[in-house]
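Supplementary Note 3. Input sequence used for the single-chain structure prediction.
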Amino acid sequence: MRCRKCREFLFINPLSAGTVGILRLVWAIFGIVLPVSAGADTVTTGLEPQTQTGVSERIACVLASPSRGEVRGNHPVEEENLRLLEAAVVRDWYRQEARWADRPGTPRSLKRLLARAEQTLKASVGVLPGEKLAERQKLLEVWKEQVSRRQNRPDWEAQPQDEELYRSIRWTLRRWVFEDAGIGDWPILFLKTRRFVCQMLHEYVGFYYNVADLAGGGVYILTHPGKSVEVKALTEGRMPRGAYQTLALDYEAERAFFAFVEVKSGQRDRRVLPNWHMLTPAPFPPEWDYHGPGRESFHLFELDLKTGEIRQLTFGREDDISPCPLPDGDLVFLSSRRGGYCRCNNWWEPLPTYTLHHLERSTGKITTLSYHETNEWHPTVLHDGRICYSRWDYVDRSAAHFHGLWTCLPDGRGARAIFGNYTMDISACFQPRAIPGSEKIAFIAGAHHAIVGGALVLFDPTKARLDPITGEDRFECLENLTPEVEFPETPNEWPSGYYVSPWPLSEDRYLLAFGYDRLPGIGSGHATEQGTGIYYYDRWGNLELLFVDEGYACLDPIPLLPRPKPHVWPKVLLPEIDKELAAAGEAAVYVCDVRRSHLPFPPNREVRELRVFQLLPKATHPVNDPRIGHANAENARAFLGSVPVEPDGSAYFRVPAGKPLYFQVVDSTGRAIQGMRSTVYFRPGERVGCVGCHEPQPQAPPLEIPLAVRKQPAALTPGPPGTKPFSYMALIQPILDRHCVRCHRDPPADSAFSNLGGTEAVFARPVLTGEPEGNFSRSYNALRPYVAFFEWGRASIDQIVTRPGRLGADMSRLSAILDDSLHRKEVQLSDEERRIIYLWLDANVPFYGTYDRQMQMAQRRGELIPLPDLQ
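The predicted structure, written as C-alpha cells, is reproduced below.
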C-alpha cells in the first residue's frame, strides 16, 4: 500500500476485523500477546481476551495533533490516545525496516529482531531478578523456534501471520526495554519547532526564522511516555508567534529554559522557504536587512513548571541561545554579544559569531566567558562541574572541520580541547552530554554544512590520545552506538536517517530525537526537514517511538526528574587570581619546556624566543570581503610581541586578557619552529601554564622549578612598526625598496635587460615595486609563488596539525632565495630585516591587518593604524 501523503510504500496488509481488535494492540503494550490468525504459531501468556473489537484496515500516515485531547466517535480520550500511539509505533516499525530495504516479517527482519532481543536479554543477566530473567529467556527460545520453522518453509513469504509474529515480538521487546529503562515512570519535557535548513550556523540565528516566516512549536510535557501520546502544552497561547530552540531543565526539575524568537506575521516580498534556496536570489527585500533596526533575535526565557510563569531573561539585538543551568542557579549560554562574523560564508548569509557567556540570574548581569573568534555550540555541565561544549577552530586550516569538544571552568578559565580538534574523520562533535554514573560523554557526530544531527557516539575522555606519527586524534576513545549512520561529511558521507538531542539514561540507554530524512543541509543538498520524533534508543539497536507530530522537529527530550548536582566551582579561586594582573587587564602564562612536543622538533634548531599573536574577529559578514591577503577566508591579525625562552625551554610572560591569541616557538635565526592552529584566551588575573607546546598526552611537568618561573613574568617586547596590526606596506615594502627594487623593477622603454655582473643596469623579475595592483600591491602579488601560506582550500587543507619545521619561513621559496649565493652577495639584509621577513612569512603573509575598508586604504598608503575596537 502506498501512503497518499508521503508516497512511501508502507507494506501494511489489511487486518482481519474479526480477529484483530483494538484490545490486541492495547494489551500488546503490556506484553499480553494474543494468538495470531489461524494456521500461524501461537505465543500465549496464559491470559485470554474477554472481548475483541475491529480496527481500521490501514494505519494512518498523518496523525492529528494528540495535544488536542479530542474525542473521536464513541471512543474516550484515553483509548484514542492509545490508538494514536499504537498506530504511530507500528508505522514507525515499518519505516525502520524500510531503512534496511526490508519489511516486517521477512527472514532478515526477524533475524535482526531476535538478535536485538538476545543482546538485550544478555545485558540483563545479573541485573534482573532470576525469575523474571528466566521468563524472558524462555520466551526468547519460543521465538527462535517459531522463526526457525518459518525460515524452513520452502515457500517463504512474509504473510500476514509472519508480520503479526514480528509485531508480537516487537511489542514484548518494547515492554522489556521500557521496563528496564524506567520509561513511563516519569514525564518527559521536550520542545517542538521547525528548523531552518542550511548549516548548523543558521539554525540558531533568529534572523533566518523571520525571513523564512518559520514559526510554530513550543515547550511540552509528554505525560505518560510509552503509554499515551497525551501531552501538556506549557507555552501554547502564552507566547507571541515565533520559533523555539534549545530546551534545558534545572537540577531541581522546577524550571525550564529555552530560546525563543518572535516571528511577526505579515506580507513577505517573495515566496518563503525554510531553507537556503530563498536566500540566494538577489536583491534582498527590505525586511532582510540584517543590520537594520527591526531585526528579531533569539532570547532566553525561564518557565516555572509549578506556577507556569514565563519570564524573559535576555534582551537586545543579539542572539542568545543554548541555556545551560549551572548547579549554583546561574546560566551559561551562547550569545553573539562577543561580536564578529563567520569568516567563510556567502554575501547572502550574515552569520554572527556566538560564544560562551554567563548570566547571573539574580541580577541579570551578563559576562563574556569565551573570546574565541569563531562559533561555539551546546554547552553542558560535566559531573566535575566543568563546562563541555563544541568549538569551531580553524586558524589557517580547513573551515569545514574541527568542531571539537572543549572544556572550561564555569567562569571561562582553562579552555582546552579534549577531542576532535585534530581530525577530519569527524566533522563536528555536537550536543555533548555527561553519562550518569560514568566519566564518558555522549555526543552527536554531525556535519558542518547541515543542520545539527548525525550519529550517536560514546566518548571516553580517559582514553583520548593523539596518534604518535600523525598527531591527529585517535578513535580508540570512541564507540559509534548507531553504526548504520556514517559520520556525515567525512568527506562525502550523507546518511539517510540521523540522531539528535541525546539525553543519556546510562551508557547503554538514551532518550533522543530521530529523523528519517537524509541529513538536511546545503552540503547534502536535502533542503527539506520532515521532522523528528522523540524516541527511546539503546546500544542493542532498539529504537522505539514515544512521540511524533508530523511536520515538526520534536527535540530535546529530558526526563522531568530532579537529578544530582555536579561539583560547584567557587567563582573566585584567590591563589589563581592576581589582583595586580587583573587591574592591568592581563594574565600570566608559563610553559615548562617549549621543546616538549608531540611531534619532534627538527635537529639543530636552538630555541630562543616565543612569539604572541592576536587574531582579530571578522567585522564584516561576506567571505573575503574585504580580503586580508593571499589566503582564503583568513584572519586579520597582530603581532603583540615576543618573550625570551630560557635554556631549559621555559618561558613565563604576561599577555592581554580577553583576546584570542596564539603562540609560535622561534629559533635563533628568527624562524618559527612550532605554531598553533587554535586560539587561547585568558581571564584577567588568571595564571595558567602548559607542560610544553603540543606535548605528548598525558605528560606531567618537571619536578624542578623551571628557570623562567623563578623570575617575574616577562613583558612582551613589541614588534616593529607595521605588525600591530600587520601592514605589508609598512613592514615589508620598505625593505624591498631599500634592497630589491633597484633590480626588481620595470626597465625604461628604451632599455634592455642585463645580467648581474655586467656594466649595465639590471632589471629582474618579479617586479617588487609597491604601486597598487588589484586588492593589494604589485610586489605582494608578484611574491605569491615564492611564499607559503595556509588556508581553507589548496593543498594546505590537509594541515590538520602543526608540524614542527613546516611553518611559513621554513616552507617559503623566498627564504631559500634570500640565502642563495647570489642574493647573499647582492642583498645586504641586516639581521633585523631578515627577521622581519621571517616574521611576516610565519604570520601567513598578510597584506592588511583590518577588515575596515577605510583603514585598509590607509594601510595601502603605508600608514600605520591602531588595533580595531572589536578584538
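The chain has 15 helices and 33 strands. The longest strand covers residues 509-518.
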